[in-house]
């Protein structure tokens, strides 16, 4: 019953597992696709973005395939337990969600473009689940690294909320919170770039089909969020 409870309820700090001061496993040195280091420090000029959008295997692939992304890694974020393991996170007793850390060059791919990919790659209205994956570890989240990121994430959420409502979806449940008090704990090595190592492996990532206009076409990344557009209709030939 306790396990079931924490499938749809975030534990308080008092209820969460205690964790540990050091990671219980090693993290690989380099990205298997991009070839760059997984852990920082990163080269000057690069920025970090953190996203949770369901099972992190498929989510990570979405981002490493994006031009301007220097490296990606998966981990656990937004909970209470220090240095958790995958099994602990899946129990619901840590409060973390499965997250992807994206290290990117903002001169090539702006943060607003990453937000567009984030929103369109999952259903942000599902609460503690994503499709058939059920549990608090699959909740939608954006953890921001600056006030500028926070403002852009909130503006894009407001824009996407409007078009989702117009398309018949319920309200967005995504949490948008500062990353500085929500540490990112890298996941075990076998999770890193999982779908590169296992091309036929489980993905679990799928969007609503509702599109957010490109940032270059709108001003939602700068001020008033007006750039929203429904997915184009498919006409049978």
Automatic annotation (TrEMBL):
Write out the catalysed reaction.
[thioredoxin]-disulfide + L-methionine + H2O = L-methionine (S)-S-oxide + [thioredoxin]-dithiol; L-methionyl-[protein] + [thioredoxin]-disulfide + H2O = L-methionyl-(S)-S-oxide-[protein] + [thioredoxin]-dithiol
EC nos: 1.8.4.11
Active site: residue positions: 55
SUPFAM superfamilies (alphabetical): Peptide methionine sulfoxide reductase (SSF55068)
Query: Residue ranges of the Peptide methionine sulphoxide reductase MsrA domain?
Result: 50-203
Keyword Kinase, does the record have it? no
Q: Name one GO molecular function term.
A: peptide-methionine (S)-S-oxide reductase activity
What's in the keyword line of the UniProt record? Oxidoreductase
Name the top EC class.
Answer: oxidoreductase
Pfam families, per the entry? PMSR
Annotated InterPro entries: Met_Sox_Rdtase_MsrA_dom, Met_Sox_Rdtase_MsrA_sf, MsrA_MetSO_reductase
Give the highest taxon in the source lineage. Answer: Bacteria
Q: Which NCBIfam families match?
A: msrA
What job does this protein perform?
Answer: Has an important function as a repair enzyme for proteins that have been inactivated by oxidation. Catalyzes the reversible oxidation-reduction of methionine sulfoxide in proteins to methionine.
Q: Which family does it belong to?
A: Belongs to the MsrA Met sulfoxide reductase family.
PANTHER family from the UniProt entry:
MITOCHONDRIAL PEPTIDE METHIONINE SULFOXIDE REDUCTASE
Name of the protein in question? Peptide methionine sulfoxide reductase MsrA
């Amino acid at each position: 019953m306790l396990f079931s409870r924490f499938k749809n309820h975030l534990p308080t700090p008092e209820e969460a597992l205690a964790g540990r001061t050091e990671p219980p496993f090693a993290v690989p040195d380099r990205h298997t696709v991009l070839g760059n280091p997984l852990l920082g420090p990163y080269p000057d000029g690069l920025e970090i973005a953190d996203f949770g959008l369901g099972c992190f295997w498929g989510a990570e692939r979405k981002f490493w395939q994006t031009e301007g992304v220097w490296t990606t890694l998966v981990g656990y974020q937004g909970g209470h337990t220090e240095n958790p393991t995958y099994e602990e996170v899946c129990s619901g007793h840590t409060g973390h969600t499965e997250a992807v850390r994206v290290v990117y060059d903002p001169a090539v791919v702006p943060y607003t473009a990453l937000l567009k990919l984030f929103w369109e790659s999952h259903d942000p209205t599902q609460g503690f689940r994503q499709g058939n994956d059920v549990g608090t570890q699959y909740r939608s989240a954006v953890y921001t690294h600056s006030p500028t990121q926070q403002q852009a994430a909130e503006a894009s959420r407001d824009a996407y909320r409007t078009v989702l409502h117009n398309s018949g979806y319920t309200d967005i449940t995504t949490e948008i919170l500062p990353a500085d008090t929500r540490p990112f704990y890298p996941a075990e090595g076998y999770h890193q770039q999982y779908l590169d190592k296992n091309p036929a492996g489980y993905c679990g990532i799928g969007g609503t089909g509702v599109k957010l206009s490109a940032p270059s076409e709108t001003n939602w990344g700068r001020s008033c969020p007006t750039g929203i557009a429904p997915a184009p209709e498919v006409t049978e030939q």
